[in-house]
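Supplementary Methods. Inverse-folding protocol.

Structures were first reduced to a discrete structure-token string of length 210. This string, shown here, constituted the complete conditioning input.
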């Protein structure tokens, strides 16, 4: 029987990105739109949020409608991050992941250099088979089904043998459509129909049967 594959999102799944990283990153994305598209800050903020709602990723909207260079965007919006002072470690995370007798991979919308750096700071970079970044998807970030299919092809895996752990509901909707088991990481008590298991943190899965 093939070994199960646990597909982990990175930000706000394996660590808290909302407290320090996302506010800085979101500001950098808004400023990028101001500098490169010529909107004022309120309009740039609104456009960034609009593309996030429609495409699940600001980058996708900028590429589609403004011919934005994705590599320039990713560099400009992630380079300012002082990750050493922003990444918050989670007690027990390494122990939890080490004890999991499954294939473990990262699937993130972040660029590779950012993802690797965060995993290093969390001291878990050696525990994953691959880091499947936005570049790995061919710039089809979650929730795009094309990115998921690239991941499954790379892993040579059947969806039914995979479990996805993620805080983004749209990404889990895509995973469920493909036949991947879904785990939503959220403090909310609501569990959408396309979610198989809802937990407050990945560490809570030690008490769950998957």
């Amino acid at each position: 029987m093939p070994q199960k594959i646990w597909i982990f999102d990175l930000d706000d799944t394996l660590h808290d990105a909302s407290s320090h990283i996302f506010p800085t990153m979101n500001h950098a994305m808004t400023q990028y739109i101001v500098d490169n598209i010529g909107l004022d800050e309120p309009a740039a903020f609104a456009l960034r949020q609009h593309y996030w709602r429609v495409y699940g990723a600001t980058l996708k909207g900028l590429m589609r409608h403004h011919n934005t260079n994705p590599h320039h965007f990713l560099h400009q919006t992630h380079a300012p991050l002082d990750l050493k002072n922003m990444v918050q470690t989670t007690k027990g995370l390494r122990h939890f992941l080490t004890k999991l007798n499954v294939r473990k991979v990262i699937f993130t919308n972040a660029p590779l250099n950012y993802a690797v750096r965060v995993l290093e700071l969390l001291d878990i970079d050696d525990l994953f088979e691959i880091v499947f970044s936005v570049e790995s998807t061919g710039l089809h970030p979650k929730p795009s089904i094309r990115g998921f299919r690239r991941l499954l092809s790379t892993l040579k895996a059947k969806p039914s043998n995979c479990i996805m752990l993620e805080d983004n509901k749209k990404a889990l909707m895509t995973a469920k459509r493909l036949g991947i088991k879904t785990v939503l990481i959220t403090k909310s008590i609501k569990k959408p129909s396309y979610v198989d298991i809802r937990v407050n943190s990945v560490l809570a899965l030690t008490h769950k049967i998957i």
